[in-house]
């Protein structure tokens, strides 16, 4: 496997809400087993673009996606593409931890259940254990798998949601500000978890923390509101190695944004 | 710095005034609230007092113990030995001579006529039937001739038997105390009330048929309305496209809730009985008619409950690749269940108390038997309140009516208790 194998490729993607562009003409390649960070001011369309990557926008009223997004060469907006199938490959973790009102075990088992990813109870037990280990939560919950997932702390809940996402063995995991509702210690845990997950998964993360983007990501994409970028042909202002984007930005707005956040 | 607020408003005295005014306003509202609560409480207390004081009395009954001589000369004067002849006799007349004697009233003559009438008021039609059944009973009808098939009740003419009869209107009767002192009259728990069925004689009136009838009716009502209502709510909330047709349906569901119940009775009588030929006066038709009343209640409650489920469950399930149906069945519906159950029970409680539409479809309850299936004719408890009272005021009937209300209220409390318990349990599980 080469170092920069392309997992997802986007070409000329527009996303509009009720005809109003939120994402304008975005083209980018998301590299396999790398962490890609989306940064930019509030309302610039980071979440919108992230949701376009696993078609979570489909259920939003008035949302229209055009352009081409491919996963391993397959167009995910093609007619025959089943979102149920797609989301097995592209999982999602949300900003606010949202475990189901069920036991810890059942939270993790839900995905494998609906996709029929096991035959025997012991296979499922293994999946749950492996997923919780992968999310760094196993040691904390192994004695109370039958307790409700909602009874965990915020940071634990978020790691449970990550375990739930990896239980269906996706290729790509999308995370929308996964640590913004957590305290610094829980945040650090999530960050180191993201780094270790990148050994096996392709990760795309939206974050407002410059420090976090620098700590966890290999690639950084800087977005700017589509309504304020009439002179640009895209509202993806800059996309490159994290090092370069932060230390040697090409665009003036990127420089101001990453510096402003430092200062 | 820019001055946004004039310093005079920040003055301590002025601020004290503002606070005092705010407190006063709060106090006024509190007083109003307490007054409203007190009025509601008083009204409830008055209602409960009237029901319980009357109803409790209806749960007790006075019994006259008397020795009865089954006089062949009176019952079958020609000595035919025919059961059909014995059946025609008015058996209550056998009791009076013994009572007159005990009370020192002359059996004949003008002077004691009023006294004799008072004694007769104690014994009703039910007592007469009770004695007749001891001699001769009807067990059915001949299918060809339609004549009654009669069998002996066990008691032979010429026997003398000690019997206990229910006494009527005892509190207004001048001889009640004397009979009690003589040991011929005593008060006991009115078991007939719970084991007997609808009867014209208040002394023998019972609610078992109405109780069973209410059970069948609610069961039919629940089975007919719950699944339909929940599926409708789910569809409207989660899957229905927003268009003119669904808007139209929505408006009509809300209209349905505002239609007076008697209209459903009329409609039910026509559609279910006349068009579909279902048996009138049965729990089946009653339950179906009431389900039209509970439907909108459950739909509205279920929709509100579904809407209140956090969107994050749905989102998380969809993010894992669940279809919208799967997200619905595994998370949204279970989370909404407590609210749906509450709505259902409120709907059923309303149905339990409905009377008018049921009278329309003939659930009047003169079938005098316990309905073994939902297609037997039956009254319900609410109809029973009306039946017990009868067409003219009578002390005992009034009491029985109130006793029936007590039973109905207890059932309602049980229903609401169940709702609260289920809600509590499913909230704890989450
Ligand atoms: N469901 C929606 N309907 C209509 N407009 C929307 C919807 N969601 C987002 N938008 C609009 O799209 C634009 C981009 O929103 P988006 O949530 O993607 O921004 P974001 O970069 O994630 O912001 P934040 O950093 O605050 O999360 C905003 O102008 C927003 O108002
Ligand atoms: Mg966002």
Q: What key phrases describe this protein's structure?
A:
heterodimer, A: 263 residues, alpha/beta, Rossmann fold, 6-stranded mixed beta sheet, 36% helix, globular, B: 430 residues, mainly alpha, MetI-like fold, 3-stranded antiparallel beta sheet, 63% helix, binds adenosine-5'-triphosphate, binds magnesium ion
Textual characterization of the structure:
- The complex is a heterodimer of chains A (263) and B (430).
- Chain A has helices spanning 46-52, 83-89, 104-115, 121-134, 138-141, 154-166, 184-197, 210-216, 242-247, 252-262, and strands spanning 6-17, 20-31, 35-39, 63-71, 74-75, 90-93, 172-176, 202-206, 219-223, 236-241.
- Chain A has 263 residues and is of the alpha/beta class.
- Chain A has a single domain (6-258), classed as Rossmann fold (3-Layer(aba) Sandwich).
- In chain A, the strands form two sheets. Chain A has a six-stranded mixed sheet, sandwiched between helices. A four-stranded antiparallel sheet of chain A has the order 2-1-4-5, with helices on one face.
- In chain A, strand 7 (172-176), helix 7 and strand 8 form a beta-alpha-beta unit.
- The model of chain A has no long low-confidence stretch (mean pLDDT 91).
- Chain B has two domains: 60-189, no CATH class; 208-429, MetI-like fold.
- Helix content of chain B is 63%, strand content 8%.
- Chain B has helices at residues 12-58, 72-75, 83-88, 96-103, 113-122, 125-135, 176-181, 192-195, 208-239, 244-258, 261-275, 283-308, 311-319, 324-352, 356-360, 381-389, 395-429, and strands spanning 60-69, 136-141, 148-152, 160-167, 185-189.
- In chain B, helix 1 packs across helix 17 (395-429) and helix 16 (381-389) runs antiparallel to helix 17.
- The relative contact order of chain B is 0.11.
- Chains A and B meet through helix 2, helix 3 and helix 6 of A and helix 13 and helix 14 of B.
- The site of magnesium ion (MG) has 4 residues of chain A, from helix 1.
């Amino acid at each position: 496997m080469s170092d920069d194998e392309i997992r997802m490729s986007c070409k000329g993607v527009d996303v509009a809400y009720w005809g109003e562009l939120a994402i304008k003409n975005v083209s980018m390649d998301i590299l396999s087993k790398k962490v890609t960070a989306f940064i930019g001011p509030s309302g610039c369309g980071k979440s919108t673009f992230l949701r376009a990557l696993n078609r979570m926008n489909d259920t939003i009223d008035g949302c229209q996606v055009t352009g081409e997004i491919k996963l391993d060469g397959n167009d995910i907006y093609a007619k025959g593409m089943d979102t149920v199938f797609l989301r097995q490959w592209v999982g999602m973790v949300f900003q606010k931890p949202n475990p189901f009102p069920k036991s810890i075990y059942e939270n993790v088992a839900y995905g494998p259940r609906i996709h029929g990813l096991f035959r025997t109870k012991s296979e499922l037990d293994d999946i749950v254990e492996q997923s919780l280990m992968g999310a760094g939560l196993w040691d904390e919950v192994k004695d109370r798998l039958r307790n409700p997932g909602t009874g965990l702390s915020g940071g634990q809940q978020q790691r449970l949601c990550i375990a739930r996402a990896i239980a269906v063995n996706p290729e790509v995991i999308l995370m929308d500000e996964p640590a913004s509702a957590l305290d610094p210690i829980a945040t650090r845990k999530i960050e180191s978890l993201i780094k270790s997950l990148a050994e096996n998964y392709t990760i795309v993360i939206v974050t407002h923390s410059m420090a976090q983007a620098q700590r966890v990501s290999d690639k950084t994409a800087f977005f700017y509101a589509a309504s304020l970028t009439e002179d640009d042909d895209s509202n993806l202002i800059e996309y490159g190695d994290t090092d370069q984007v932060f230390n040697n930005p090409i665009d003036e707005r990127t420089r101001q944004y990453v510096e402003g956040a430092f200062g | 710095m820019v001055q946004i607020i004039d310093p005079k408003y920040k003055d301590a005295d002025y601020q004290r005034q503002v606070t005092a005014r705010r407190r006063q306003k709060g106090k006024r509202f509190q007083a109003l609230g307490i007054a409203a609560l007190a009025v509601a409480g008083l009204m409830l207390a008055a209602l409960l007092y009237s029901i319980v004081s009357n109803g409790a009395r209806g749960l007790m009954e006075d019994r006259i113990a008397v020795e009865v001589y089954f006089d062949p000369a009176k019952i079958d004067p020609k000595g035919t030995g025919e059961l059909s002849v014995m059946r025609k006799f008015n058996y209550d007349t056998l009791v009076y001579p013994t009572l007159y004697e005990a009370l020192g009233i002359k059996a004949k003559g003008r002077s004691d006529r009023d006294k004799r009438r008072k004694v007769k008021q104690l014994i009703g039609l039910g007592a007469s039937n009770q004695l007749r059944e001891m001699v001769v009973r009807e067990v059915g009808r001949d299918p060809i001739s339609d004549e009654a098939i009669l069998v002996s009740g066990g008691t032979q003419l010429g026997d003398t038997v000690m019997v206990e009869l229910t006494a009527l209107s005892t509190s207004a009767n001048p001889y009640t105390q004397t009979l009690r002192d003589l040991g011929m009259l005593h008060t006991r728990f009115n078991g007939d009330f719970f084991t007997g069925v609808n009867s014209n004689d208040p002394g023998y009136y019972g609610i078992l048929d109405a109780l069973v009838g209410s059970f069948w009716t609610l069961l039919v009502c629940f089975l007919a309305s719950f699944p339909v209502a929940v599926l409708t709510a789910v569809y409207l909330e989660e899957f229905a496209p927003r268009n003119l047709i669904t808007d139209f349906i929505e408006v009509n569901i809300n209209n349905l809730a505002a239609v007076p119940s008697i209209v459903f009775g009329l409609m039910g009588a026509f559609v279910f009985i006349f068009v579909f030929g279902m048996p009138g006066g049965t729990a089946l038709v009653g339950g179906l008619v009431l389900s039209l009343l509970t439907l909108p209640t459950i739909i509205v409650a279920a929709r509100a409950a579904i809407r209140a489920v956090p969107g994050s469950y749905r989102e998380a399930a969809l993010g894992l690749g669940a279809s919208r149906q799967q997200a619905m069945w595994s998370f949204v519906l279970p989370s909404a269940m407590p609210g749906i159950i509450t709505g259902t029970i409120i709907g059923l409680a309303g149905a339990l108390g409905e009377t008018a539409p049921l009278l329309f479809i003939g659930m009047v309850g003169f079938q005098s038997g316990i309905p073994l299936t939902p297609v037997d004719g039956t009254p319900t408890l609410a109809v029973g309140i009306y039946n017990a009272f009868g067409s003219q005021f009578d002390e005992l009937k009034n009491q029985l009516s109130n006793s029936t209300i007590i039973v109905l209220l207890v059932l309602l409390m049980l229903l609401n208790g169940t709702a609260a318990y289920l809600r509590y349990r499913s909230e704890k599980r989450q």
